[in-house]
Structures are given as C-alpha cells and as structure tokens.
C-alpha cells in the first residue's frame, strides 16, 4: 500500500488582507485535498511533530549544513511555490524571498514563539509553530496559512521534481515510485514507504525533512481517511471537518485509534472492532514514526517534559529517545500521561516488531538469515508479533547459531520490557484478568504483577485458570529469563545482595547465576524476598526444559535422539510439560547393559536439575500434577522445604496409583544417588567430609553414600537434621525393595521370579531367605537365588538379626551381650536411632508427638500408650522398649537424670555389683520403688518411679524382678490371666489374691512389695483405683498422690459399695502383709505405724505410755531429791580409819601436796 503524502504549502496573502478572489482560491485548495481520495484521517496526531531544530541543523535551511544538504536546501527553496501563485493575480507580490514570518497572519505568533534566527527560514518557522506546547494558542488564520503552505508543498509538481533530482539513483531502483502519478502526493508517500532501502544521502535528508512535514497532520496522508473514516466516527476519535479541532493537533486522534486497537487485541469490554484496512494503516503510521519520537505527535507532547528530565542528552533518531523513555517508564518522576503513551506504543511493538525502528534495523539480517521474516503464507497477526520474532531468534541462539551483537542487545531490551510490564502481553491481560483483580491489583510496576501471577500459578495464593497458566508460560518462553536473570527486574533487585555474596565468582548475566541461587536456597545467605522471586520463576522454567539454556545446550542432541523432541521454538501437544526431562532422567541412570544412555555432560546437567527439584515439590511438574490430591489430603501442613516429598514418601501406601508410581520412581532414583537430596547433603556435610569423602567424590554413587551415612549415624559429627534425614531414608527403604539400590540391583531378577507379588522389603527378604534356607536344607545343586543376591541378602537380614538378638540377649555370650547392651543404650538415648521403633510407630509419632523433641519420642509414646487411638503394633513395640528400659536404669535416660542423686544414696550396694556386660535386672528400680513407698525420694525421682509403678501395675512384664521370681507361680496360679491379649493388671491381682498359695519366698516377697507400694499410693493399684475413681474425684481431688487411701479410710466419708469392698480387701491384705513381713528396722516400724489403719490408737497408746513414764520419772526424781536433802542435814558419823590405808604423795606443778586414797 502506498501512502501519498499531501504536504501542505502556503497561502501568500496575509490574514485579513485577502480579497474575494483570494478567498475563492483558498477554497479551491480543498478539492485538491479531497481529490487525494486516500487522505485518511489517520495520520492523526502527527500534526505537530517535526524534527527538533537540533536534529534538523544538517537539513535544508538550518545553519551550517553539509554541502550536500545545502544543495538540497537550494533545490527545496527553488521548488517552494511563489505565494502569488496561490493568490489573486491582482495582488502583486515578490516572486522570491517570501517569508512566513513576514505574513501578517503569523507575524505576531512567530515573534512570540520562535527564536529570531529561525525567522528567515520558512521550514524552521513551520517546525517551531508545530512543536509548540499544547497549551500555547496561536491565531486560527495562521493555522490555515500553515496548512495550505504544506499542502502546496506536497502537491506541487515543482516540489516533486526536487525529489526526482536528489533521488535520481533511488528512483531508478524504486520503479514503483517512479511510476506514481504526479501532483497528488503519491510520489512522496512511496519514497517514505521505502525509505529503509534508500542509500543516497541527499535523498535520505530530503525524505526525512518531508516526512516531518507530512506527519504533522493526519489529513495529509493520502488514503488514510478513506480507510479509517468509519472507525474514527464510530469511536469519536476526532473530527474530519475544518475548525472542529486545532488543525495541527491531530495526534490525539491517532492515539485514540491506537488505544482502540490495543483494547481490541486484549478483548476488553465494550470494544469496537476496527476494520482490517484501518488496522494496517494504524500500524503503518506507527512503523513510519519508529525512528523519531517527534513523529508520534501524541507521545511527543505527552512526554516532552519527561524527555527533558530523563533523556536530555539522548540524540534524536533511530528510536533512541523511545528506548530511553522505555527504560525510565517506571521511574517515580515519570508523568502518568507519558507512561500511558509509552505503554500504548510498547503494546503496538508487541503486535508488530517493525514499530520498533532499532529492533527492526538491528535484526534485519538475522531475521532474513534464520527465516524469521514475514511469511506470505501466514497471517500478519502471527508473522509480525514480537513474541514470534523473539522465539525465532532465541531458537537460533540456543542452537549455537551466530546472531549479531546488536540484534541480541535489542532482543535483551525487549525481553526485559515484556518481563517488566505484563500488560504488553494481550493474552495475559485477557486470560489473567480475574487473577489480577483478585490477588495482584496495585502491583503493576517493575514486574511485580507478573511475579504475583506466577506465585498464584504456583498455588501459593490460590488456583489459576489454565488459559492464564498457558499465557504465563508463553510469556516466560518469549522473554527467556533463564538465559539472563537481569531480564527479570523483580528477581534482579530482590537477589542482588545474594548474587554479590554467594555468586560473585560468576560473570554477570551468566545463566549459571540462577543455578547458583538455587544451590543457596534455604541457606543463611539467601534472603526471603529473593527466595520467593526465585521459586516463582523456577516454577515455570522447570515446566519447559528448553528454558534452562545450559540443560538445553548440553542435552539437545540426547533429547532429539532419545525423546524425539521438537525444535526450541516449536511445541507439540503430544509432548506435555515435563515429559522431555522425565525422559532424560530415565536414561540418566541406565547401566551399560541397558544401553541408550545419556552423554556425560548431559547427565551432569540432569543431576543438577534433580538436585534443584528436590528442594521443592512444585518444581517437578509431573509430580505436582499427579499428586495434587494427595498433597492436599496428607501433606497440607507440610510447608517447610523438602517436607512435601518426605510426606508423600511416608504415605506411599496411601497414595493414589498415579502419584504412588511417580513418588516411587523418584525415591528409587534417590536410593541410587542420594545427592539428589540437596537439603540432606547440606545437613550431612560434616559427616561426609570426615567419614564419607571417598564415596561422595565418586562420579557414580550407586547407593554408597547413603550406606556410609547409615554406618556413621553414631559419630559425633552427626547432627540432628542429618540423623533425621538418614533415618527417614532407612524407613522408606522398607516400603519397597526397589528403594535399596544395591539390594534391587542384586536381587531384582530373583524377586520377579521367586516373589513376584511382594514389594515390601521385609517380606521380600523373608521370601528370599526362606528360598535359600529350603534349597540349602534340601542340598539343591543349583540355588534358585543368585549368588550376588545371596550376598546382598545377608546384609539386609542384619537388621532382623539384631532385633532377634535383643529379644534373646540372656542367652548370648558375654561379649555379644555387651555389644547389644551398648547398642540399646545408644538407641534409648536417641530413639531416632531405634530403627524398628521408628518404622512401626511412624504414624503414631506423627499423631501424638509432633511437638516433642526427637530425643523424647519414646517418652511421648509411653505417655500415649493407652490411648484408644494408639496402633496395636506400635503399642506392642512400646511395651518391648519399656521392658528393656526396666531391666536397667541405664537404659532409661529420663529416669537416670531424675534420680541422679537418689540412686547412689539408696542403692549404692547394687551399683557396686554392676557390670557392663549384664543388666541389673531391675534391681535399682526395685530399690527405688521401696524408697518410694517410704516417701524418701526427691520429687523428680518420685514422679518417674510413680510412672513406672503405674505401668508395671498394669503389665507384670514391666517388672523384671517380679517376672524373674514369680515366673513359675504365674504359670501355676495365673496362667489364664498371663495369656490375655491385653494386660490390665490381671496377673498382679491374681498374685495378690493367691498370696497364701505362693510357695517361693522370693516371689512372695515381690508380691508383698507390690502391696506395700500400693499402700503408699492408690494410683499404682489399678484395681482399687478403678473401683474408687468416682470417690477419688469427689473426696480426694485436692490431695496429692500418696495420700489418697488415707482420705478414703476416713470414717466420715461415705464410699461407693464397690470401692468400699475393694478397700476393705486391700486393708486385709496389708494387715496380712504386715504379719508375714515384719519390720526390718526402726524406719520400717515407723512406716508401718504411720500407715497402719490403727495409727491413731497406736500413737495414743505410745503417747500415754510416754506420759506415764514421764510422771513416774518425775515422781522418782522428787523422792530422790528429798532423801538427798535429809542426808545433808544430818551430823556426820565419827571417822574411823581403816586398818591399813595405803597412801601416796602427789606433787602438782605448783608444789601442793594431795593425798588420794587408793
């Protein structure tokens, strides 16, 4: 389509001095303009835009010009019509030297608005008046004068003859222009249309000057009115009649049509569909104004102040001012009107890349080279889209083809532009409108809205429509931020500090920056804002393997060979998101025998991606898609890093089949290469460095690193996080034999052949072990289980063997017993090391002990053991561990800590006999039980012993002394109670009731001790406590443990019949126990008195006896005193010396002599 530019000339007569003839001649000009039938009303806003004076200095009539420019200037001046030619012949005027500035209609306006040095040049005056500020008014007559002056310039054959002279060579090359009809503006339209192919300097200068004139008013573009008249009237974008609007301010009309075109592309409400021919005309106008922002009149006037503020030193031409303004679009100082005008132009560029002069020019050769040019077989809406251009050129870059630096620079700018402003993508505006209004309103600037939408798509804020998801994925592919993180401004700003510290060794803009950031995810160096932006972007990159440029570069040949992938910029509905990468990692771990393996470089990249995806389950699109329901059902509360995958693995048996399959495959992969678990490897770094460095450095893992970590779980370098992670893998390995890599590789064929329907590892081991045993016993020559499997089977049987040894440690040798005891002691200190307990009670731990410390798990399970929700298997395992703990206080770390001072104080004699090789068989705990009955323990120790007494009162197996001494009596007297499925104190009650029938003195002593303990505290007597529970609640709520029975024995308390009967039975038993087991010392005697039912009577009698003794003593004392006094008062008897009185003389140091009788 050619556009004839009807460039306006001038009227000679000044305003106010025209006679009727002159006025009639002015009116004759209108048919000329109308005769250009293609004068579309659409060059709208081009009305006020000439090149600035600075840009036109080298053009005709502007200062010291280039010699060639001077020649053009002279020819232009010669071609300018004499004003007399446009006016009446009776009005004689000079044929040369006519000046616009001298015309009365414009003299005042020129003097007021234009610098004096421009007055002598008509074109300078024209530019000055056109580029005035919008709020500046000037005379209507001057407007008409300028308009007619430009019209005559365009349509006058003499003016077109200048074009033929300065564009001689060009006219020979552009035959379609040479054939245009003269005098209607068609020639200039053709030249401007093909100016990209013009090489003559003089011709380029001439066309540039004329283009600036043509673009001043939409009515001067021939054919534009015919194509857009209906749309302009329907949309009320402007007026086509003279006087309704300022004739040189039609830029708003073009802006109105451009806005309508954008609204239609975004399918906004109440939009009017613009005719196809008008759309092409609008886009053509935008293309022609691409190099100089002056030519986009609406944008020029909207951004005039912003240009001075942000781009003052930016030279006009080649779209440089546009790019400068685009880069400052979201600055705080940018006016809203300019920002909106820039956004509209960017949206036009998104629809037609040619609207960007710099992009079209820089990439012209590359577009032709890689066949990205418009294809005649494709609709224009497809061929000219910016996204299509970017995808086509990015495909060439990703394939390793050479794209010029200038073109790549332009691509980078426009990719950044797409990431900064979501509204430039009409698909996102159309399909994500609901999500933006609901979650992301008010976040328009600097890519924040786009990242908000990406976060919604991740599921962090809600659900997202499939069309919106597709639009986001398409935009990410077009912008390709994976190739250069700087394209994503939101990410770049959020992660700047992390990049400067953690990734400073990597060149800025390198694709490895994103990989580096992922490696530091959830570390101390990562900041929260960067973490969010990074995961939002990686969510989309992970869904298209091509968006990771390093992976694509290293694996494109493998993907083509093994996965039959389409080209980079192509898509296939048969290849869903994530399918290519799934194919790659399936081939990454194949053995040489299996064939079709990845190349080494590709495998390294696949492992890198797997390490990153293990950090967040949402980075694995296939896993998230298949497991969406299970994640919500089982793992809704698992929000920390890595927890979702662990949760799915824990619930593997409960998952739906599709989810179970992919979780199983991923777990199987992790069993071979545990380094995929980046968080675990990070937590276990100290252990790896000190004990597993050799296996960690191996290129091929094959499960060795995990095995090393398991073997070193007891090392001092093992921290809590690492221990938890390793234990987790040990537990999930039992769910499926495939999760133990070495076992799987050694026994896979044997399992399929001999145990085809079994998956659980424990069951598989039993199945294979049974087969090996039967073949061995039957002397089968060829064992059905292969040799390599039998070797691995011995390793897997070790865990079962250790559990067996624990249960039968009494019959072990001293050395073995000592090893098992030390192992149990370590496991009791840290229950997470107790593999069997953690495996059997995993669900109960999650139910009851989520808030408990890892070292207090067993204590928590013991407290909830009798809950109705407790799993029977777990309860049985807890009972086993309690039995183990009660055999030796050293196996009960809580008791050991609480009774640290009491044990050596009361039980030192037992400690003196202790041995590391043997348990104390509950002797220390029995000692503490007796002191508990005497109420002599510290409060902390008393609390722990009370718990042990309560538990052992319900299950006799928890009292090792009772079980050891009464085993035969239990079998003889209480066999039925001992075989009960659940122990609730039946055996203890049976022994108490049959106390008189017990033959073994040691057993009788233990039963008496039980009675003594229950006498001290009713809470350790389950039968009496159950019978009197209601009375205890009513009468003893405020009484501390150990005093409950005394309150019940109060004669004033009325008890329930069952409680009264049970209490009387207990009193009778205690009385009998006191007779059978008299006090062994004063303390026992005092305790018996204080706990006796007749305590008051006994204390009264003791008090009475003491009182009587006191009175008797007092009486005797007075009598003695009276006798003594009488003896003193009586005269002494005569002295009669004895017959022979021995004597000796003692001399004291002072020389005194004393005589003492012998």
From TrEMBL:
Q: Which residues form a coiled coil?
A: none
| InterPro entries per UniProt | Cys-rich_GLG1_repeat, Cys-rich_GLG1_repeat_euk, GLG1
Q: Name one Pfam family in it.
A: Cys_rich_FGFR
Its principal location? Golgi
GO MF annotation terms: fibroblast growth factor binding
Name where the Cys-rich GLG repeats lie: 273-333, 402-461, 463-525, 597-656, 717-776, 811-868, 869-936
- Which sequence ranges are marked TM in the entry? 1097-1117
A GO CC term assigned to this protein in UniProt:
Golgi membrane
Keywords noted in UniProt: Glycoprotein, Membrane, Repeat, Sialic acid, Signal, Transmembrane, Transmembrane helix
Protein location: Golgi outpost; Membrane
Report the membrane topology from the UniProt record.
Single-pass type I membrane protein
Among PANTHER family, the record links this protein to: GOLGI APPARATUS PROTEIN 1 (PTHR11884:SF1), SELECTIN LIGAND RELATED (PTHR11884)
Designated name of the protein: Golgi apparatus protein 1
Report the source organism.
Triplophysa tibetana
